[in-house]
Amino acid sequence: MKDKGEKISMLTAYDYSTAKLDAAGINGILVGDSLGNVVLGYDTTIPVTVEDMIHHGAAVARGAKNSLVVVDMPFLSYQTSVYDAVVNAGIMKETQCDCVKLEGGKSVCPQIKAITDASIPVMAHLGLTPQSVNAFGGFKVQGKTVEAAQQLIEDAKAVEEAGAFAVVLECVPAKLARKVTEALHIPTIGIGAGEGCDGQILVYADMLSMFSDFTPKFVRSFANVGEI
Length: 228
Ligand code: KIV
What we know:
The chain is α/β, with parallel strands linked by helices. The protein has ten helices and eight strands. Helix 8 (about 145-160) runs parallel beside helix 9. Bound molecules: 3-methyl-2-oxobutanoic acid. 3-methyl-2-oxobutanoic acid (KIV) binds near residues 72, 168, 170, 191 and 203.
């Protein structure tokens, strides 16, 4: 789709019935660890477990018939070692999702390479990576300084080189996201990263204004389901 200049559409889903709505024509579904916030009521994605992802990932995979289904690897399921990363990427097998997503750049490239070598496709995730919220000191736009922007471009090239088939860019300046998109052969999927990415993703509960704990500035609301 990137090569043809076609935009890629993605939403999150965490259950069977929502996943079945992929009949509407969405290209990809992410079983995001954002389920920690929107389904389980945690403040962050940090407490989410591999078991949580298997439970919800399998339900989504049963419902989705037309789209690529990506399941998130939760915090500390891949950072600890390359071995742990490959074993836990087995959530693709457990859930029957099509591939996994993990957060980070150069520091997790050995994990990306090992997981892809094990025939499990990997989507990368850069910018505001929510599993690192404590290290960032809050949910803040990333890549704002020249050094941070340069680092993000290098991380994006590194994850591509390591074998990632796509990369999510979350909360980075639009100009930077466009630059990264132009620099990579693999597609970029933006969330709060402007219009220059190859695709866009939203958390479906944000898109429908069902989740009221906080609403990121970039969210476009398509219906006010919570209030109604
Ligand atoms: O967990 C999630 O829903 C995500 C998206 C916000 C990209 O990682």
